[in-house]
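Q: Structure tokens for this one, please.
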Amino acid sequence: MIGLPFPQVGKLIMPMINFVQKYGHFRYTREILFSNTENCDESRYTDILMSLGSIQTIIEDYKNEIKQIFNGKDFSIDFSYRMRIGVK
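A: Here is the predicted structure, written as tokens:
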């Protein structure tokens, strides 16, 4: 998809799956969404936030508050995944 224009229709952004199909790169495209619930403790939650990059310095300042919120307990968190499939 290198060199293709940014997918815009008027002021709305076209969903990427429609964009790929429109330009004929694939004869069949589909987008599948997945959801998964997992247990999360304070350490994992902090690691997830740190992986976001843009808020790393903020998280460093609030590690103690995060620890107090979790208070040694695990919580369930939901992850959503998006997979785009294309058949040439």
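A few notes: The chain has a mean pLDDT of 76. DSSP finds three helices and four strands in the chain.
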